[in-house]
Design goal:
By secondary structure, the chain is of the alpha/beta class. It folds into four domains: about 140 residues, Resolvase, N-terminal catalytic domain (Rossmann fold, 3-Layer(aba) Sandwich); about 130 residues, Putative Large Serine Recombinase, Chain B, Domain 2 (Hect, E3 ligase catalytic domain fold, Alpha-Beta Complex), CATH 3.90.1750.20; about 120 residues, no CATH class; about 55 residues. Helices cover about 50% and strands about 15% of the residues. It is built from 18 helices and 15 strands. Strands 2-1-3-4-5 form a five-stranded mixed beta sheet, with helices on both faces. A three-stranded mixed beta sheet has the order 10-14-15. It has a three-stranded antiparallel beta sheet with strand order 11-12-13. Helix 8 packs across helix 10. The N terminus is likely disordered. The structure holds zinc ion. Zinc ion binds next to loops.
């Protein structure tokens, strides 16, 4: 058996870890710094060379901790396999792992590479039967402990759910009250939050009055009301957290939320009444569910799929809006005639007309003067708006140049992430200062800039149609080509910039 005296020169890696649960457990758990200090003192006493100190702070080592990477531990494993290490130190075996599979791998690696384990100041050789037995026992205890914790947590969660009590993230619209104890805080109550509850109430009232989720989202953004994502980010990271705009889905999700209607959801199912006060009444919840679910189904029913230019492109002959139809199998836009029954005045292949209009619109969006022109040309907007528009254009140009530089490799990934985040925050702030109604619809403000092509690709059909309506009139003239010709003559399409 090896003894510390056998090896003349000892090279060790120190590993320390503490989980959030350990921390909440009171004074029994030593902090990562304390663990490291103790081990370092011992290393100095015994003349051991410390190769590296690796740590994982606030991370569990149990198999129940899903999606959490222990980066420190991964480095440990890599270092052991790379060789040149004599000993791996930890304050307790449970610091290294609480997972059987990870433990088995560790022991395998140690035996293969001749690495000894120093646990709680005592050196063990995993390949020695007696030492190995001691280590296995400690590992078994660590595994058992985490299994018991996991079971207790699961039971608590289940019990809270059955009792209709809150659990998990604080839902938008509510705040929580806690009792603070030395072992951590205990959730007392979930109550309507004075800042966000009125937002939910307004949203519900407006939806029930027939206003669209989109226009509510745009209005909330214009008024600078933080979206649920922004609200949460600010609570966690402070007032400078990045801003996430309101989206159509945000409005819908809030309106349909069973939590806001005072229902307790567990594993994705409503299991009964919750203990907290509902913000949305049972009647309103039912009305909203019928309204919004019905709307979603109507939109997705085959045959009512909308097209980029239906109702937007106009017939030059009679002025009627064009509709979509299949013309001998080819998706097309056609004019149903002024009385909507006659023979088609004009007809064009959908893909060709769509492509022509998109080319025009994206070109306009990329024009650095677009927002400025729109702001000035329409109802002579004030200087503040013009300045905000100019700043927004400038920031978007900076970001585009910067993305280009990063793509060419002249900026490191880390500084790219930092600078990009900073620029994006400024862009969001500048965009907030531009009025988003009237001459400058929100969709256009959001999409204009050097990145317009990428932005366009990411937009849904609704937004694309809003932008087209805001920027151009599409007038389709009678074709000069013989009837039935498959060719597309762009000169018969009149695009009138607005
Ligand atoms: Zn017509």
């Amino acid at each position: 058996m090896y003894g510390p005296s056998v090896r003349r020169h000892r090279r060790a890696i120190l590993y320390a870890r503490v989980s959030k649960h350990d921390r909440a457990g009171g004074d029994k758990a030593k902090s990562v710094d304390q663990q490291i200090a103790e081990m370092q003192a011992q290393a100095t006493r015994e003349g051991v060379t410390v190769l590296s100190v690796l740590r994982d702070d606030g991370i569990s080592a149990s198999r129940y901790a899903k999606n959490k990477t222990r980066e420190g531990w991964q480095e440990v494993t890599a270092a052991l396999l790379a060789g040149g290490v004599d000993e791996l130190w930890a304050w307790e075996l449970s610091r290294m792992t609480r997972d059987r599979m990870v433990y088995a791998k560790l022991v395998g690696t140690c035996i293969a590479t001749g690495v000894l384990l120093n646990v709680d100041g005592k050196l063990h050789d995993p390949s020695d039967p007696d030492d190995g037995f001691m280590l296995d026992m400690q590992a078994s205890l660590a595994v058992r402990e985490s299994g018991i914790t996991s079971r207790r947590v699961k039971r608590d969660v289940e019990a809270r759910a059955q009792a209709g009590k809150p659990h998990g993230k604080v839902p938008y619209g509510y705040a929580r009250t806690y009792e603070h104890r030395s072992s951590g805080r205990i959730l007392l109550e979930q109550v309507p939050d004075p800042t966000t509850e009125p937002v939910v109430r307004e949203l519900v009232a407006r939806l029930l009055r027939g206003e669209s989720a989109y226009s509510i989202a745009a209005d909330f953004d214009r008024r600078g009301i933080p979206s649920p994502e922004t609200h949460r980010a600010r609570r966690v990271h402070g007032p400078d957290a990045p801003v996430t705009p309101w989206r159509l889905e945000t409005v819908r999700d809030l309106a349909l939320s069973p939590t806001l209607a005072g229902q307790r959801v567990h594993n994705g199912q409503v299991i009964g009444q919750a203990t907290w006060t509902p913000i949305i009444s049972a009647g309103d919840h039912l009305a909203l569910t019928t309204l919004l679910r019905g709307e979603a189904q109507r939109q997705h029913r085959p045959g009512t799929v909308r097209h980029l230019l239906s109702g937007i492109a106009e017939c030059a002959v009679c002025g009627a809006p064009l509709r979509h139809m299949l013309n001998r199998g080819t998706p097309s836009y056609w004019c149903p005639g002024p009385d909507r029954r006659g023979r088609a005045c004009v007809c064009r292949a959908k893909d060709k007309l769509d492509a022509l209009v998109v080319l025009h619109v994206v070109g306009r969006l990329r024009d650095p003067e677009l927002l400025h022109d729109l702001a000035v040309r329409r109802e002579g907007t004030g200087a503040a708006v013009t300045a905000a528009v100019a700043e927004l254009q400038d920031l978007r140009a900076q970001l585009a140049a910067f993305v280009q530089a990063a793509a060419e490799g002249s900026v490191s990934a880390t500084s790219f992430a930092t600078i990009e985040a900073g620029l994006q925050r400024k862009i969001d702030a500048a965009a907030q200062r531009v009025p988003r109604t009237g001459p400058l619809p929100a969709a256009v403000v959001d999409a204009a800039g050097p990145q317009a092509e990428q932005v366009w690709d990411s937009l849904d059909l609704d937004r694309r149609r809003q932008i087209i309506r805001a920027l151009v009139r599409v007038v389709v003239h009678k074709s000069s080509l013989p009837k039935g010709s498959r060719r597309f003559d762009p000169s018969t399409i009149e695009l009138i910039p607005l």
